[in-house]
Amino acid sequence: MRERRCPARSFSLPAIGGAVLLGLLLAMPVSAAELRVAAASSMQDVMASLGSAFERQHGVRIVSTFGSSARLYHQIRRGAPYDVFMAADAVFPEKLEAEGKGSFRRRYAKGRLVLWAPRRSPVDPTRGLDVLSEPRVRKVAIANPKLAPYGQAAQAALETSKAGDAVTSKLVYGENASQAAHFVSTGGAEVGLLPLSLARSPRLSDEGRFWLVPEKLHPPLFAEALVLNQAREKSEAKAFLDFCTGPEGQAILRRFGMEPPR
To answer: What is the dihedral of CA 49, 54, 60, 61, to 10 degrees?
Structure first.
Protein backbone atom coordinates (compact mmCIF):
# COMPACT_ATOMS: atom_id res chain seq x y z
CA MET A 1 0.00 0.00 0.00
CA ARG A 2 1.43 3.37 -0.93
CA GLU A 3 2.58 5.76 1.71
CA ARG A 4 0.24 8.67 2.40
CA ARG A 5 1.76 12.07 3.11
CA CYS A 6 0.47 13.91 6.15
CA PRO A 7 0.32 16.71 5.10
CA ALA A 8 3.87 17.45 3.96
CA ARG A 9 6.81 15.05 4.24
CA SER A 10 6.17 11.53 5.55
CA PHE A 11 8.01 8.25 5.35
CA SER A 12 7.07 4.58 5.47
CA LEU A 13 9.43 2.30 7.38
CA PRO A 14 8.92 -0.83 5.25
CA ALA A 15 9.98 1.14 2.17
CA ILE A 16 13.05 2.80 3.73
CA GLY A 17 15.76 0.95 5.63
CA GLY A 18 16.19 1.89 9.29
CA ALA A 19 19.72 3.31 8.85
CA VAL A 20 18.73 5.24 5.74
CA LEU A 21 15.62 6.61 7.47
CA LEU A 22 17.59 7.70 10.52
CA GLY A 23 20.16 9.48 8.36
CA LEU A 24 17.42 11.14 6.35
CA LEU A 25 15.65 12.39 9.47
CA LEU A 26 18.87 13.67 11.01
CA ALA A 27 19.62 15.62 7.84
CA MET A 28 16.18 17.26 7.76
CA PRO A 29 16.05 20.93 8.71
CA VAL A 30 14.13 21.46 11.92
CA SER A 31 11.50 24.18 12.12
CA ALA A 32 9.89 25.49 15.28
CA ALA A 33 6.60 25.21 13.39
CA GLU A 34 7.03 21.50 12.76
CA LEU A 35 6.35 18.39 14.85
CA ARG A 36 7.86 15.06 13.87
CA VAL A 37 5.42 12.30 14.77
CA ALA A 38 6.18 8.57 14.68
CA ALA A 39 2.76 6.95 14.20
CA ALA A 40 1.49 3.40 13.91
CA SER A 41 0.60 2.44 10.34
CA SER A 42 -3.05 2.06 11.35
CA MET A 43 -3.03 5.85 11.78
CA GLN A 44 -2.01 6.84 8.24
CA ASP A 45 -5.27 8.37 7.09
CA VAL A 46 -6.23 9.50 10.58
CA MET A 47 -2.99 11.50 10.88
CA ALA A 48 -3.69 13.32 7.64
CA SER A 49 -6.93 14.68 9.10
CA LEU A 50 -5.51 15.31 12.57
CA GLY A 51 -2.46 17.05 11.13
CA SER A 52 -4.49 19.36 8.87
CA ALA A 53 -6.85 20.37 11.66
CA PHE A 54 -4.03 20.96 14.16
CA GLU A 55 -2.08 23.06 11.67
CA ARG A 56 -5.13 25.24 11.01
CA GLN A 57 -5.52 25.91 14.73
CA HIS A 58 -1.90 26.17 15.84
CA GLY A 59 0.14 26.92 12.73
CA VAL A 60 2.30 23.86 13.42
CA ARG A 61 2.86 21.33 10.66
CA ILE A 62 2.78 17.61 11.49
CA VAL A 63 5.42 15.55 9.66
CA SER A 64 4.55 11.86 10.11
CA THR A 65 6.54 8.66 9.75
CA PHE A 66 4.54 5.42 9.75
CA GLY A 67 5.46 1.87 10.71
CA SER A 68 4.65 -0.91 13.15
CA SER A 69 4.62 0.20 16.77
CA ALA A 70 7.54 -2.12 17.57
CA ARG A 71 9.67 -0.83 14.68
CA LEU A 72 9.05 2.77 15.71
CA TYR A 73 9.85 1.92 19.33
CA HIS A 74 13.23 0.52 18.32
CA GLN A 75 13.89 3.51 16.05
CA ILE A 76 13.28 5.85 18.98
CA ARG A 77 15.53 3.83 21.28
CA ARG A 78 18.29 4.13 18.67
CA GLY A 79 17.94 7.90 18.55
CA ALA A 80 15.57 8.69 15.67
CA PRO A 81 14.68 12.36 16.25
CA TYR A 82 10.92 12.22 16.65
CA ASP A 83 9.00 14.57 18.91
CA VAL A 84 5.88 12.45 19.51
CA PHE A 85 5.23 8.70 19.39
CA MET A 86 1.67 7.61 18.62
CA ALA A 87 1.44 3.85 19.09
CA ALA A 88 -1.43 1.47 18.41
CA ASP A 89 -1.29 0.21 22.00
CA ALA A 90 -0.08 1.21 25.46
CA VAL A 91 2.84 -1.21 25.75
CA PHE A 92 5.50 0.61 23.75
CA PRO A 93 4.83 4.13 25.09
CA GLU A 94 4.93 2.69 28.62
CA LYS A 95 8.28 1.03 27.87
CA LEU A 96 9.78 4.23 26.51
CA GLU A 97 8.56 6.19 29.51
CA ALA A 98 10.05 3.60 31.88
CA GLU A 99 13.33 3.82 29.96
CA GLY A 100 13.44 7.57 30.45
CA LYS A 101 12.69 8.45 26.81
CA GLY A 102 9.49 10.39 27.48
CA SER A 103 7.48 11.92 30.30
CA PHE A 104 4.08 13.05 28.98
CA ARG A 105 1.90 10.05 28.07
CA ARG A 106 -1.73 10.17 27.00
CA ARG A 107 -4.30 7.52 26.03
CA TYR A 108 -5.93 8.99 22.93
CA ALA A 109 -8.28 6.29 21.56
CA LYS A 110 -9.40 2.71 21.57
CA GLY A 111 -9.07 0.86 18.27
CA ARG A 112 -11.23 -1.90 16.84
CA LEU A 113 -10.37 -4.96 14.78
CA VAL A 114 -12.38 -5.98 11.71
CA LEU A 115 -12.53 -8.80 9.22
CA TRP A 116 -12.26 -7.08 5.82
CA ALA A 117 -12.53 -8.34 2.25
CA PRO A 118 -12.68 -6.54 -1.10
CA ARG A 119 -15.99 -6.66 -2.91
CA ARG A 120 -14.46 -8.79 -5.65
CA SER A 121 -13.52 -11.46 -3.10
CA PRO A 122 -15.67 -14.62 -2.98
CA VAL A 123 -15.64 -14.30 0.81
CA ASP A 124 -18.41 -12.56 2.74
CA PRO A 125 -16.70 -11.16 5.85
CA THR A 126 -20.03 -10.29 7.48
CA ARG A 127 -20.42 -14.02 8.24
CA GLY A 128 -17.69 -13.73 10.86
CA LEU A 129 -14.56 -15.72 11.60
CA ASP A 130 -16.17 -19.07 10.71
CA VAL A 131 -15.82 -18.14 7.05
CA LEU A 132 -12.04 -18.40 7.33
CA SER A 133 -12.14 -22.19 7.47
CA GLU A 134 -13.79 -22.46 4.05
CA PRO A 135 -11.60 -23.99 1.29
CA ARG A 136 -12.05 -20.96 -0.96
CA VAL A 137 -10.21 -18.89 1.64
CA ARG A 138 -6.60 -19.67 0.80
CA LYS A 139 -4.85 -16.71 2.43
CA VAL A 140 -5.73 -14.56 5.45
CA ALA A 141 -3.65 -11.41 5.97
CA ILE A 142 -2.77 -10.07 9.41
CA ALA A 143 -0.06 -7.79 10.75
CA ASN A 144 2.97 -9.51 12.26
CA PRO A 145 2.03 -10.23 15.91
CA LYS A 146 5.67 -9.77 16.93
CA LEU A 147 5.67 -6.18 15.69
CA ALA A 148 2.13 -4.83 15.57
CA PRO A 149 -0.60 -4.66 18.24
CA TYR A 150 -3.29 -5.35 15.62
CA GLY A 151 -1.45 -8.51 14.67
CA GLN A 152 -1.48 -9.59 18.31
CA ALA A 153 -5.20 -8.83 18.51
CA ALA A 154 -5.87 -10.80 15.31
CA GLN A 155 -3.95 -13.79 16.61
CA ALA A 156 -5.79 -13.64 19.94
CA ALA A 157 -9.18 -13.43 18.20
CA LEU A 158 -8.41 -16.49 16.09
CA GLU A 159 -7.29 -18.49 19.11
CA THR A 160 -10.20 -17.41 21.31
CA SER A 161 -12.76 -18.19 18.62
CA LYS A 162 -11.23 -21.64 18.04
CA ALA A 163 -10.62 -20.70 14.40
CA GLY A 164 -6.86 -20.63 14.91
CA ASP A 165 -6.04 -24.26 14.05
CA ALA A 166 -7.99 -24.15 10.79
CA VAL A 167 -6.47 -20.83 9.75
CA THR A 168 -2.83 -21.05 10.86
CA SER A 169 -1.57 -22.49 7.59
CA LYS A 170 -3.40 -19.75 5.64
CA LEU A 171 -1.91 -16.76 7.43
CA VAL A 172 0.26 -14.25 5.58
CA TYR A 173 1.95 -11.55 7.62
CA GLY A 174 2.45 -7.90 6.81
CA GLU A 175 5.17 -6.10 8.71
CA ASN A 176 2.46 -3.73 9.88
CA ALA A 177 -1.31 -3.31 9.58
CA SER A 178 -1.04 -1.16 6.48
CA GLN A 179 0.97 -3.81 4.65
CA ALA A 180 -1.54 -6.49 5.66
CA ALA A 181 -4.29 -4.31 4.20
CA HIS A 182 -2.24 -3.97 1.02
CA PHE A 183 -2.05 -7.76 0.69
CA VAL A 184 -5.84 -8.07 0.80
CA SER A 185 -6.64 -5.07 -1.39
CA THR A 186 -4.28 -6.24 -4.15
CA GLY A 187 -5.40 -9.87 -4.18
CA GLY A 188 -2.60 -11.40 -2.12
CA ALA A 189 -5.21 -12.71 0.32
CA GLU A 190 -8.97 -13.22 0.15
CA VAL A 191 -9.59 -11.60 3.52
CA GLY A 192 -7.71 -9.86 6.31
CA LEU A 193 -7.97 -8.94 9.98
CA LEU A 194 -7.32 -5.21 9.96
CA PRO A 195 -7.80 -2.03 12.01
CA LEU A 196 -11.20 -0.42 11.58
CA SER A 197 -9.36 2.86 11.02
CA LEU A 198 -7.95 1.44 7.77
CA ALA A 199 -11.23 -0.17 6.72
CA ARG A 200 -12.82 3.29 6.97
CA SER A 201 -10.02 5.04 5.15
CA PRO A 202 -10.66 6.55 1.71
CA ARG A 203 -8.44 3.86 0.21
CA LEU A 204 -10.51 0.92 1.47
CA SER A 205 -13.97 2.12 2.45
CA ASP A 206 -15.38 1.92 -1.09
CA GLU A 207 -13.39 -1.17 -2.06
CA GLY A 208 -14.77 -3.68 0.40
CA ARG A 209 -16.91 -4.56 3.38
CA PHE A 210 -16.14 -5.63 6.92
CA TRP A 211 -17.33 -7.35 10.06
CA LEU A 212 -16.52 -5.88 13.46
CA VAL A 213 -14.69 -8.48 15.54
CA PRO A 214 -16.26 -8.71 19.03
CA GLU A 215 -14.02 -7.12 21.63
CA LYS A 216 -14.39 -10.14 23.90
CA LEU A 217 -12.22 -12.13 21.47
CA HIS A 218 -9.05 -10.10 22.03
CA PRO A 219 -7.44 -7.72 24.55
CA PRO A 220 -8.58 -4.09 24.25
CA LEU A 221 -6.62 -1.96 21.79
CA PHE A 222 -6.02 1.13 23.89
CA ALA A 223 -3.81 3.50 21.92
CA GLU A 224 -1.38 5.77 23.74
CA ALA A 225 0.94 8.58 22.71
CA LEU A 226 4.10 9.89 24.32
CA VAL A 227 5.92 13.21 24.10
CA LEU A 228 9.58 12.28 23.84
CA ASN A 229 12.21 13.93 26.01
CA GLN A 230 14.20 14.84 22.91
CA ALA A 231 11.30 16.88 21.48
CA ARG A 232 12.50 20.29 20.29
CA GLU A 233 9.23 22.01 21.18
CA LYS A 234 7.68 20.15 24.12
CA SER A 235 4.90 22.68 24.61
CA GLU A 236 3.72 22.22 21.02
CA ALA A 237 4.05 18.45 21.30
CA LYS A 238 1.88 18.48 24.44
CA ALA A 239 -0.59 20.78 22.69
CA PHE A 240 -0.91 18.20 19.92
CA LEU A 241 -1.79 15.45 22.40
CA ASP A 242 -4.27 17.80 24.08
CA PHE A 243 -5.80 18.39 20.66
CA CYS A 244 -6.04 14.64 19.94
CA THR A 245 -7.84 14.03 23.24
CA GLY A 246 -10.01 17.15 22.93
CA PRO A 247 -13.40 17.51 21.19
CA GLU A 248 -12.17 18.17 17.64
CA GLY A 249 -9.48 15.52 17.70
CA GLN A 250 -11.86 12.94 19.14
CA ALA A 251 -14.44 13.77 16.46
CA ILE A 252 -11.82 13.05 13.78
CA LEU A 253 -10.81 9.79 15.45
CA ARG A 254 -14.46 8.69 15.67
CA ARG A 255 -14.89 9.20 11.91
CA PHE A 256 -12.29 6.48 11.45
CA GLY A 257 -13.93 4.14 13.95
CA MET A 258 -11.61 4.88 16.86
CA GLU A 259 -13.52 5.05 20.13
CA PRO A 260 -12.99 7.39 23.11
CA PRO A 261 -10.02 6.36 25.30
CA ARG A 262 -11.80 4.86 28.28
So the answer is: 0
